[in-house]
Structures are given as C-alpha cells and as structure tokens.
Amino acid sequence: MSNTLFPIFLKTETARFLVVGGGNVGLEKVETLLRQNSQIHINLVAIEVLPQLCLIINNHTNINLYEKPYEETDLNTADYVIAATNNRDVNRLIKQQANSRNILVNAADQPELCDFYLGSIVNKGDLKIAVSTNGKSPVLARRIREYLEQEIPDDINVIIERLNEIRKHFKGNFAAKVKELNAITASFTKSIHEK
Ligand SMILES: C[C@@]1(CC(=O)O)c2cc3[nH]c(cc4nc(cc5[nH]c(cc(n2)[C@H]1CCC(=O)O)[C@@](C)(CC(=O)O)[C@@H]5CCC(=O)O)C(CC(=O)O)=C4CCC(=O)O)c(CCC(=O)O)c3CC(=O)O
Ligand SMILES: NC(=O)C1=CN([C@@H]2O[C@H](COP(=O)(O)OP(=O)(O)OC[C@H]3O[C@@H](n4cnc5c(N)ncnc54)[C@H](O)[C@@H]3O)[C@@H](O)[C@H]2O)C=CC1
User: Fold this and answer.
1) Would you say the CATH fold of 119-152 matches that of 16-117?
2) Any idea where the domains of the chain sit in the sequence?
3) Which of 46, 125, 152, 185 gets the highest tally of CB atoms within 10 A of its CB?
4) What does the H/E/C string look like for 48-113?
C-alpha cells in the first residue's frame, strides 16, 4: 500500500506544540495552528523572529517566545513539534531527539522527517474536513479545500445541530436511532450534488 496515512482529529485544548523557527514557514505553521484554536498552547523557539510573527505573539498570551537557538530541553514541555528552521541539520536533530522521547514531529519542508503532515482544512461549524495528497502536492490539497469550501453549504451546521438533537432523542435504542438517522440523511448526498 502506498498511501498509509491515517487521519486523526486531535483535541487541542491541552496539546502543547513546540514550533522551532520564526521565519516564513514558522509564521505559516503558527497561523495554521491558531486557525483551528486561537487558544492553542505554543512555545516558539527561534534565533530570530519575523516582525509579523512578533505581532501575533504579542496578541496571544497562549504563545511563549524563546528567542534563542534550539536546545533539547525545549522538548520538556512539548507534545508535538514543528521543525521549521532553515538548517536541515537542526531539523534532523530535533526529529531525532523528539522521537527518542516519543514526541511526534512535523518538519515543514522535509517530508522524510515528518511523523505527521498538516492537512488542508475545511471548516464549516462542527464539520471539519482535512485533505492530504500524501505529501505529493500541497497546492492541490489547497485547491481541493477551496473547492469543498465553495460546494458545502454554509448552513451545514444547522443540519448538524438538528441531527444531533434527533440523535440525543434516541439515546438507548441504537437500532432505532441508526434507522431514523439513515432515513433522514438519505437524500443528503444527492442534495449537495444538486446544489
Ligand atoms: C509534506 C507537507 C509537510 C507539512 O508541512 O505538513 C508539506 C511539504 C511541502 N510544502 C511545500 C510547498 C507548499 N506548501 C503549500 C501549502 C500547504 N502545505 C501543506 C502541507 C504540507 N506541505 C504537507 C503535505 C500535505 C499533503 O499531504 O498534501 C498544507 C496543506 C497545510 C499547512 O501547511 O497548513 C498547506 C495548504 C493549506 C491551505 O491553504 O489549505 C503550498 C501552496 C500554498 O502555499 O498555497 C506550497 C507551494 C506549492 C507547492 O510546492 O506545491 C513544499 C515545497 C517547498 C519548496 O519547494 O521549497 C514542501 C516540501 C516537499 O514537498 O518536499
Ligand atoms: N519560505 C517558504 O515559503 C518556504 C521555505 N522552505 C524552506 O523551509 C525552511 C524555513 O524557511 P523560512 O521560514 O522561510 O526560513 P527563514 O530563513 O525565514 O527562517 C528560518 C528560521 O529558523 C531560525 N533558526 C535557524 N537555526 C535555528 C536554531 N538552531 N534554533 C532555533 N531557530 C533557528 C531562524 O532564526 C529563523 O527564525 C528553509 O529551509 C526554506 O528553504 C520550504 C518551503 C517554502
């Protein structure tokens, strides 16, 4: 099998991210994390930090900045690491030291160093879709996100809320619940297509 990625949806309330590198890539990755949870906990370690990133840090008490070179002890408070320095050896060292502590690593421009990729993310209320091209074409992942954003109705969350009400109503009777939910949602694929 050539595409063995397994997508999971990570809860970010308690997850602690370490981002190493404060250039364009560090900035992009911080923005990506904040877009999903503006309160996400980030420690940012970088020798130099772009002014645009400084601005974001100043506006977020949940981001701590350490303006210094990366050290192994930076991993002490990390659950996930994003290595975004312009030094491939440093990125490799981060990967090796993090993995020896069972911490997962994303290395922005080195897929071979990644334990996980960041996906292109569609957000419509409680609906979230993450797209990956198995590392082959991030730009296509972005295009597919844009396509899905256009095609999926903005009021999809109203439907999700209603289905959730119905779901709660059937608590305890699993078979009846599944039957009812299947019947209600049967036309849905078709209606999205006809939109
Ligand atoms: C492997 C991966 C690792 C990771 O970063 O997690 C990776 C790696 C690399 N990206 C590169 C370039 C670009 N990345 C983007 C954009 C995104 N890249 C993202 C994810 C991933 N990028 C992971 C695989 C995802 C998958 O499986 O599909 C997205 C989806 C999520 C995010 O980063 O938030 C986000 C879109 C978000 C959105 O808008 O929806 C664009 C387009 C743009 O910016 O519009 C370009 C320029 C065009 C191009 O090159 O395609 C390069 C070459 C660098 C060089 O040439 O120097 C590498 C390195 C390499 O491939 O060797
Ligand atoms: N800028 C872009 O859009 C893209 C860049 N890349 C590659 O990704 C890498 C990073 O790119 P940029 O963010 O643009 O680079 P950059 O040069 O703007 O930033 C690099 C950052 O790494 C920090 N850094 C370097 N060594 C460090 C260390 N030992 N400890 C802590 N921080 C350290 C620097 O202080 C700086 O904040 C580069 O190798 C680049 O070629 C890949 C894809 C796209």
Assistant:
1) no
2) 16-117, 119-152, 156-194
3) 46
4) EECHHHHHHHHCCCCEEEEECCCCHHHHHHCCEEEECCCCHHHHHHHHHHHHCCCCEEEECCCHHH
Looking at this protein, which amino acid is placed at residue 80? Answer: Y
Q: How far apart (Å, rounded) are the C-alpha atoms in residues 166 and 159?
A: 11
Q: Which amino acid residue places its CA nearest to atom 13 of ligand 1? A: 138
SS3 of 186, please? coil
Q: Using the mean position of ligand 2's atoms as its centre, give its distance from the Cα of residue 85 in Å.
A: 4
Q: State whether the beta carbon of 108 lies less than 6 angstroms from ligand 2.
A: yes
ipTM of the complex as predicted: 0.92
Q: Is the separation of the CB atoms in 120 and 138 below 8 Å?
A: yes
> Per-residue pLDDT for 192 more than 60?
no
Among the atoms of ligand 1, which is closest to the Cα of residue 32?
34
**Options 3.40.50.800, 3.40.640.10, 3.40.50.720, 3.40.50.2300; CATH of 16-117:** 3.40.50.720
Look at the block and give the residue holding tokens 């923005």: 31
H/E element, 188 = helix 188-194
Q: Which ligand is nearest to the CA of 50?
A: 2
For the whole model, what pTM was predicted?
0.93
